[in-house]
Amino acid sequence: MRDHHEDARLDALHQLKLLDTQPSEGFDRITRMASQIFGLPVAAISLTDRDRQWFKSRVGVGHDSIPRETAPCAQVAESSQLIVIEDFQADPCYANSVLGRGGTRFYAGAPLVTHDGFGLGSLCVLGTEPRKATDAELAALVDLAAMVMAQIELQHAFGRIDPVSGLPTRNQFRDDFIDLERDHPGEQRFAVVVDMARDDQISRITRALGLARVDDFIREASQSLRVTLGPGRVAYQVGNAQFAFISPPGVEQMAYVTLLKSSFEEMHASSSVRFVTNVAIGVRSFIVGTVSADDVLRGAASAAQDARSAEGSIALHSPANDTAHRRQYGLLQDFGAALEAGDQLRLMYQPRIELATGRCRGAEALLRWRHPRLGEVSAAEFIPIIEQTSLARPTTQWVLDATMDQLVTWDRAGIEPVLSVNISAANLSEADLIERIQVALSKRKLAPERLEIELTESAIMDQPDQALAMLRELADAGVCLAIDDFGTGHSSLAYLQRLPARIVKIDQAFMRNLTQATGPDFVLVEAMIGLAHKLGYRVVAEGIETSEAATILTKLGCEEAQGFWFGRPMEAEQFAAWLSDRQSGRRVERGDT
For labeling, which of 168, 236, 298, 516 is most exposed (least CB within 10 Å)? Predict the structure, then answer.
């Protein structure tokens, strides 16, 4: 009959990941102390495995293990009791044991017991002469055994076993990966990361039911994962709700992926939170010995994130996607330094033209980044990344300060354009944004109407009430407001008419095919211009690249336009020269600036 207690005891021992590990001075110090207290030549910290006694620490012993059968340390582990054998030759159980035949006559062993009551082994001392043990010696041995367990539990607490799931952690994955490289170099394997729930789903459970319910979910998931993997397979908890494991050798990729998909669909179907969570699985293939443990985990975790938008919620690691994600992260890391460097960021200026008169009313300030290693980085690449981080505030402040400093410089040269600046949805959460803008304008003695703030329709609708309150404050301060990318968001007309904006900028997507006064693009643009006028807005069309589009917009009553047909984004000096030429009546060839 199967001994369930012994199975549980062995599981507790193996979970600690102590067997066959390197010597540790912390354990050796305790072993030496036991030897010195008893005045005996041999002492050991002995762990009772399935069929052997393995020595985590030893003094006076040349080998690192002996058979478990007839070993007194096994009796100590099984009984969790202190055992003393005063004379091996007088004890029928041990006289003919491995130790007895080797000349051992005296043994004393104190149990190493977990909080759950499982005996792992013993701290033992051995001698070659029969003897008795004093009460003081035995008390000291028991105390030293407790110190060994404290040391084991301390190691266990420092990142080896997750206290909630009971699974080995990422630190243990790294150690086991080293063993895999040593024992199976060159093998093809797969690393799998199972992401049980998105961060927002975990947050929702926490807010509704508390952290204890999340712990229950993690325990339930880890138990299901153990069952799914079966005996002999190790799973690791590598994130809040992320688990990882390594495939067995000799499996074919697509067959393995199909197996994973069906197994985890069944696993999720039985989850108590299956209606509020969804599982995503990432798979990373690798050759053992050619890639680090951290890189394997990172690649599989990245694939799990890709799986959230993939059919079947399972995805293979994509080197192309991985490269893109790493580049994004690298840009994010580098941009913080760019803000402080002083020579990487600059503004360029794209003119805005009044269609009826051809007069330049101002320009849009556009942030540009010349990376010291990568060269020019597109704003379309780095700005969306920055807007999602704490860099949004200092970036917007840098642009505002640089814009207003440029206005001051141009004022001294007799050039007085209006400059528009984009802010992001993240900036709407900055309670002091309006005050900072007002202080900056006042410090430079600039009239508020010289600055125009642009906010996209989507950004406004992300936080409509907050946006409305802030935009009203800006309008009260005399700063002109513009709704950027009009027509691409999901704003309600009822909300738009409440905004204190003066300008709407129709997105360039509607201008690309605007070549004649017919067709769906013309109808859309005509309707948007008419609607904006009825709501009291001045209209600016973006992305104008042809004379046909400029002519059509003029006939439709669109007030202003910007785009390559009138002028590309220019450096400050180039824009000043361009504007001076235009104001003096000199011809500027359209489309080639």
Answer: 516
Q: What CATH number labels 346-583?
A: 3.20.20.450
Give the residue among 150, 108, 155 at the shortest CA–CA distance from 127.
108
Please say whether the structural domain 4-157 has been given the CATH code 2.40.50.140. Answer: no
d(C-alpha 196, C-alpha 241), whole Å:
5
* DSSP designation for 556: T
Calpha distance 196→201 (Å, rounded): 10
Answer yes or no: are the C-beta atoms of 422 and 395 closer than 8 Å: no
pTM of the model: 0.64
593 residues of the chain, pLDDT tens digit each:
447 788 888 888 887 878 887 677 788 999 999 999 999 999 999 999 999 999 999 999 988 899 999 899 999 999 999 999 999 999 999 999 999 999 999 999 999 998 888 999 999 999 999 999 999 999 999 999 999 999 888 766 565 778 788 788 888 889 889 889 988 999 999 999 999 888 888 888 898 889 888 888 888 888 888 888 887 788 899 988 899 999 999 888 888 888 888 777 777 777 776 666 788 899 999 999 999 999 999 999 999 999 888 777 888 998 888 888 889 889 999 999 999 998 999 999 999 999 999 999 899 999 999 999 999 999 999 999 998 889 999 999 999 999 999 999 999 988 889 999 999 888 888 889 999 999 999 999 999 999 999 988 777 777 777 778 888 888 888 899 898 887 776 555 666 777 888 899 998 888 888 888 788 889 999 999 998 898 889 999 999 999 999 999 999 999 999 999 999 999 999 999 998 888 766 444 444 44
| CATH fourth-level superfamily of 170-317 | Reverse transcriptase/Diguanylate cyclase domain (3.30.70.270)
Amino acid at 184: H
